[in-house]
Structures
1.
Amino acid sequence: MKQIEILVVGGGPAGLCAALAASSLGAKVLICERDDHPGGQLVKQTHKFFGSEKQYAGDRGFQIGEMLLEKVKADENIELWIDTTVLGIYEDGIVTCEHDGEHVKIKPERTIIATGAAEKFLPFPGNDLPGIYGAGAVQTLMNVSGVKPAERVLMVGAGNIGLIVSYQLKQAGVDIAAIIEGAPKIGGYLVHASKDVRSGIPVLTSHTILEAYGKDRVEGAIIAKIDDKWQPIPGTEQDIKCDVICLAVGLSPLTELCWQAGCEMAFIRELSGHVPIVDDYLETTVPGIYVAGDVSGIEEASSAMVEGRLAGLSAAASLGYGKEEAPELQKAAMAELDELRAGPMGERIRMGLEKVAAKGGAK
Amino acid sequence: MLINDGIPTKEDLAKVMPSPERLAAGPVSIAECFQNIPCNPCVKACPRNAITMPNSINDTPQVDHENCNGCGVCVGKCPGLAIFVVDMTYSEEFALVKIPFEYVPVPEVGQMACGLNRSGEEMGWFEVEKVISGGKKNKTYTISLKVPKDLAMEVRNIKVGGYK
């Protein structure tokens, strides 16, 4: 049995920041990361981040990931287990994982769940053909493995992920037939959209994919315009030749551990699925279990990093660390989150968090 | 409309355009950033403090065109690649347009590159006057393109490759 003060499940932007913040107050931390390279989605992000300098804005995602990882590795309070999949969490607080080919039990005093999110899929005829990918897989092929994933791509979804991955594909020399989006408006940042469009990538809002076709793999897709009830408009069909269809249609929080731990959960549409009810300090309804990042609602990586910091500070403070400095640092993190969410693009998140608060969570 | 197709309209652009007098006075930056998103590296980038966000990082950048001298530091720093510099005083015939660029290959000084407008349409072939690397960490290039004056407010990108 491995004893540790704070266990962080997931070594993405939220998890790494949680560990660093907890350690900065003096707590001993163990990070369990499923992949062999910590950093989560940061590893694949070749674009410059938004936000303010407090969230490393202007640096590229992978650079932020490398910087956080170096800090974690140099930190004597933090132990990092890679290739380690957390398997379960039990009523006595014991967490089990697969580590170095062994089934290992961990007894943490506090647990921070920072498991991130999974991509959503889209139902349409032909969606089981080889050549249909989630945007995350395309990014992994391109930006982690150095594999050109396609010659010509149809991107489905004009949120930030669809817009950014299209740009990265174009940078890798891949032709983008179009970015299609069911909603009448572009969901991601308009500067990302403009950057794509002036590189020759059309963005078609109020468009959907009707079917994918091909003999042994994707050879093309039929798309069509949709009306305000999301019904295809006859006669607007277009045949798009492509060898990959990339789906960027949203993410769902990866909450299995929260459910298993018995955290009170709620379905909150604005946060993209079932999320744990948390208080202002990101503690769930199970004392000693905290969450940070996409697991508590889908948002940008900059917010995930600040949430990680807040959860790490809170978990360490609850163990008696940083009595002097913790309250100020927690307040600063909360203020940063408020600032990141203050604009019109944060409205959805604010509404979601209000619903969480109404269910007895954060105020 | 910008929100539907990613292409800023004339009305959008009018809001961020320097005055004709200022354009006639030398290089100046134009922040084609129209949405209130949480982002402010341009504010920190400007060595003359000519870019501000009075209320919060969710403001769009306010460029003080009188204070801006068109140095172009912000062009390579904007994470959204949304800032350009236009110098209408470059020569009798040409304006100089500074464009952020993150594709390979990068054109070389003296080569001709195909200019694209905000819709990605080809606008003709223009000489590359200068290429500035953003350096190892930043990685964004700033390409200065010699553009006939009547196209200076149209050309905002170059087509990758095929430079001659």
2.
Amino acid sequence: MSAPSVEKGIRFIREQIDAPVASFFSACVHCGLCAEACLFYTQTQDPRYTPIHKVALMRRVWESEFTLWGRIKSALGLTKPITEADFTEWETLVYDGCSLCGRCSLVCPVGNDISGMIRKVREGFAAAGHAPEGLIGATTRAIEIGSPMGVRLPALQAQIRHIQESTGLEISLDRPGVEYMALLSSMEIMNFPEYLEAIARILRQAGKSWTISSKAFEATNSGIQIGASDLARVLVQRIVDAAEELGVKMVISPECGHGYTAIRWDGPNLIGRPYKFKVKHILELLDEFREQGLIQTQGLEEARLSFHDPCQIARKGGVVRQPRALLGLVAANFVEMSDAGAMNWCCGGGGGVSANERADALRLTAFKQKKAQLDALKVDTLVTACANCRITLEEGLEANDMNIPVIGLTEMIAEHLVETDRIEEKSA
Amino acid sequence: MNADELLIWARGPGFDLALLVFVAGMLLRLFEILSLGRKRDLAEGRGCGAVGGLRTILSRTLPRRSVFLKEPLRILNGYLLHMGLFVAIFLFGPHIDFFKAWFGLSWPYLPSGMVDAVTAVTLLSLTVALVLRMNNPVLRLISTSGDYVAWVLTFLPLLTGYLAHNHLLLPYTWMLALHILSVDLLLVAAPFNKLTHMFAFLLARWYQGYQAGYRGIAS
């Protein structure tokens, strides 16, 4: 692989320009309304965080190379070439000041998918050697160790052993021929192992056979966040190989936002073919179990609670109805926050921002958007379905002296699950 | 060249040429976009891309509530200037006579006094758009010289049309000639600046809506 350079960065940006991108730049009237959709702008009032401004380098490549007028200007020497200094200047806007939440894409009056373009332009920044250290480290660990947080198989095995000993639940690794292969995020293995216990209990009660692959248990994909499709492909391929080797019918994406869009939408496009298995987010699956009567719950949470829609699951994943239906089973005092669902505000930690230490202060500033939503609600508990949102929310709440516990929805369902002594596994 | 000669040139060969550049230029821009193509989405879909594309073409005409509440002036002004331009261009009697002579199509028009009033409001609306662009920090940062060129190109035909109709500033024939010349200029330049949004917005909405429809997500 050639060394990072400005030329390589420009080439990678050029390769990302397709008909949709060209139509987006041709349609943009510079109205600036996308800024009002972006929490990094609304909370800093710094115009540089205007979403369309973040893809200015891509616009320059498009204009000078893909339009007649731009080519004439370039030939006459009227185009300013992209330099190292440009990559340096835009690096923090593209990585630190964007969580790829996609809210800007939904407000653009001409219909530009700006967030999609920021994802694309990151390919150029990574190729030019202008990605943040934190994300480079996470991606390197993901490729070399299999986890962006450096979580190795023994750590997972230890968590499994712990759960098996304390609950008597059986969690098998590499069991072929089962119906489901569950993925986990490192964050869940290390910080929220209650998720693993929850799915073990729910799948057992539903009579479903399942397993975890020792070769591909990690759901997150740092390659997508940093903008390195070649590395993203390697990470997806591991999951695909494992799932197809085990012969599972479905891969369950865990409570991880970008992990879901990575395996659900990006994956087949990265490896260049459709999967031989289906992919569902755990909330989609739980809601199906609810509809099919495979799980029942008892008791209600009396606390006033709300649901934080993870951007990648709600806005980009289309899983909006399911968490509400599930909360309807267990929550007596559920309230929606303003802009809930597809227009929800990001926690600020998505798109690799939480893995980028350099962006910590900016992320906490952007969190004020979520704080404003929560201040208006006065809830006792916040429920979500993404481990990265959860840790970002917890940090933000703590930094603002807000005492609101954050709970994963799957875990909450498991707490209210009606469990019977012996459930026979139905064959796959 | 006197006023009559200029008027004859502007509405004759000048307009012919401008229209040719406009049509050829817009087709070129369309080709520049479509020829890049796009990869098929290999992920298993949940819905129909085409339905999503058409839905977004319509739905994106209305603003999201939360953004509207933050920028009501900018958004309402946007509607106003687009509707004003539509009325001034397509519902003014002499314009329709002109279209009929050129393309053989005609349709009902509004009383000229009403179009005149709408034009005045549209000029004001364009002025508000310019003031916002020059004073709002976000707009100032993302604006290019092309934005100001496009503004001038749009403002001039409207202004000269208004002045000609009201017999202001210059003798009528001169002002009418300038009006048609400014239209010629607009037609020639439109394919090479952001005025391409007049067709590209349909493609942009279609592409985003198509993906959203296919994936079963919001757009």
3.
Amino acid sequence: MNGWTDLVQFLFAGITAGAIYALVALGFGVVHNTMGIVNFTQVDFVSLGGMLLYSALSAGGLPAPAAVAAAVAGVTLIGALVEILGVRPSRSESHLVLIFLTIGLSIILRGLMKLIWGKNRLAVPPLAGESVWTLGGATILTQTVWIVVLTALAIVALRWFFRHTDLGLAMRAVATNETAAAVVGLKVWRVKAASFALAGALGGLAGALITPITTLAYDVGVLLGLKGFAAAILGGFGSFPGAIVGGLILGLLESLAAGYLSSAYKDVLAFVVLMGVLFVRPRGLMG
Amino acid sequence: MRPDPATRLRWFILRHRTGLTVWLVAVLLALVPLAVRNPYQLGLLNLIGIYAVAVLGLNLFIGYAGQISLGHAGFFGLGAYGSALLTVHGWLTPWPALLLTAALVAVLALFLGLPTLRLHGHYLAMATLGFNYIVHLVLVQWDAVTGGPSGISGIPPLGVAGFTFDTELRFFYLVWGGVLLGVTACLNLMRSGVGRGLAALAQDEVAAATLGVHVRREKVRVFVLSAVFAAVAGSLYAHYYHYVNPDGFSIFKSLDLVIMVVVGGLGSVWGTLLGVMVVTLLPYYLEFLEAYFDLIHGLVLVLILMFLPQGLVTGLWDHLRLTWARRRVAGRGEAS
């Protein structure tokens, strides 16, 4: 290996991680915009995506693309359930209570996952097996190409959803002014459940895509999810372009720092960036 | 005419009820070892005492001043590792180590709090969580100093003039003495001007500022104070177990501390003791439910927040007081 192939390798790793962070950051943003809260269960949607993929492949015996679709659909449903059963009954306006509430729900989801799938690490095969591409001398897992393509597709679909569907427009209306949206007859409760469902879909997709090339356990989403949050803050919390830009910058920074500086402290970087942004410019790059 | 002695006694009790409660609890605590002789159970009480010191501070910050911290296990860990490092290498004896560690953590909390406490709600939650994550990862990774995942052992016990707090019973008196000091400090603080200011800014920062509360300064001060409580608890932990490793200081421990605050009740000093006790003892008494433990923790937190958002003890207490007040009003209505 020479310096050039190293760099290509690091860049690809960075873009892959960045795509995942962007998906998670978008999930945080969707819920924040419609409900004004940070949804800590987002981190568990990521773990759930991986877990459901595992079950769909091993117990369900589905082919890989169908398994991914099933996993995403499952987490979408769970997202809506979390809102309907967990967040809605509290009817609280206090930030303190709502933040602690989603933390409690997140602990419950982790407890359930631990019960169902156990504490041990599981293995999920990548979508296209172990095949690799070579590019400029660097070898790249086919899975990383899938991650980038599917993330890009998800972002395009999200953009279309928010501009051209009734539900998407209703979500933007509620995000702008909840009372006004209710006055013109939009069912705000349905929009809120939908925003959790959408956050579940984004988190579930992130989990189903990344766990085959990293590792899968009931708490794997905590770190990925918190890094996704850091990406969202970096880009500007609640901003969709910001989530994508923040995710990519964070992914690249992380992979380059791990490659050229120190891999032991790789996981610290996201949190140093998070705190740096909060200290200097809390509204982020594009907020 | 002087009122009769019975009335004067009633006035005395009413006027000094807070102080008398502290004394009463102190006497009861002093008698506990007569009933609990089993070292294992005393050990549990000691653990509760250690966490109580940390959670008292955290409850001031969360419950009383209305801020959010998901990073206090970080301060707790820094306290434990600070005391451990300073004493294991023989640089300092335990008490000066405890004081120096607390002072260092205070300075760190000041530098962390100044920029962080401009933030609100989830930003503050995430900044403190990020801090805790960094502390934990450094404790795990900085092998040369912290001993990595296996930690530091051989930490000497605390002592005074040749008398060491090295048995469960001796440490019991030390740690619960510390808890009572902390309780008294919190009760006094709450009834001072500073405490009233904190309660005001928890309700509405703008209104508090108009009434002359220096919002930002007070928030930073209570943050530093709560960090010092956590650091002292950490030092006690290190000297009690003679061993520290990074496991007990992760972000999940911070969540546990928050659960203790919520169970105890936001802003309730006495409730804190109960909250810590319930959350600490639950795993020991429901051992057969071990597999469901995370689930139970989460459910406790969610259910309390749904039905008694002020926390279990505070919520129930408010509910009781309201019922009594209603009854009194109803009774007066009938009499007239």
